[in-house]
Design goal:
Number of strands: 6
Strand content: 25-35%
Shape: globular
Strand order of the largest sheet: 1-2-3-6-4-5
Structural class: alpha+beta
Distance between the termini: 19 Å
Largest sheet: 6 strands, antiparallel
Radius of gyration: 15 Å
Number of helices: 4
């Protein structure tokens, strides 16, 4: 991969010619590659990222296809994250890096990530939780794809 200092693009997830209602940001910052899956929220006309679950599964499958490894995955507030990473980590039971290509049931992985995310709360005394939070997924790229090639692969718009 080219030595890039900082780049960031926002994209939708595509399946063929169909754009899903799901956005992600793909960035490189100081050599770290991050895919940020935006949260689902709202209803009706105010709905955003309504296709969060199917898009997330597609992104995980595309990570496996690219041979990228998950270095870290955590919940992230959209603005001004102040909580330490250690408090926001997901899939704690998995050794890092996580090779998504070796996981046989991507849907179960996506559900497990959502269940882990439900337990990351500002107030731990509240019940319930949101399984479709904004996630930051830090990736290792041992296959050497360039940034633009990974962006095209992950978005499905190629």
């Amino acid at each position: 991969m080219k030595d890039l200092k900082s780049k960031s693009y926002e994209s939708f997830v595509w399946v063929g010619n169909r754009q899903l209602d799901s956005r992600f940001t793909f960035e490189i910052n100081g050599g770290m590659i991050n895919l940020i899956l935006h949260s689902r929220g709202g209803a009706g006309k105010n709905r955003r990222n309504g296709d969060y679950a199917p898009a997330f599964e597609l992104l995980l499958k595309r990570m496996a296809t690219a041979g990228t490894l998950i270095r870290e995955i955590a919940v992230q507030r959209a603005l001004g994250e102040t909580r330490p990473l250690e408090e926001r980590k997901l899939l704690r039971q998995h050794e890092r890096p996580i090779n998504v290509a070796l996981i046989h049931n991507i849907r179960s992985l996506r559900i497990k990530i959502g269940l882990d995310g439900k337990n990351i709360k500002d107030n731990p005394n509240t019940q319930g939780g949101n399984p479709t939070k904004r996630l930051v997924i830090s990736l290792d790229n041992p296959t050497g794809y360039d940034f633009e090639d990974l962006l095209i692969l992950f978005s499905g718009k190629g």
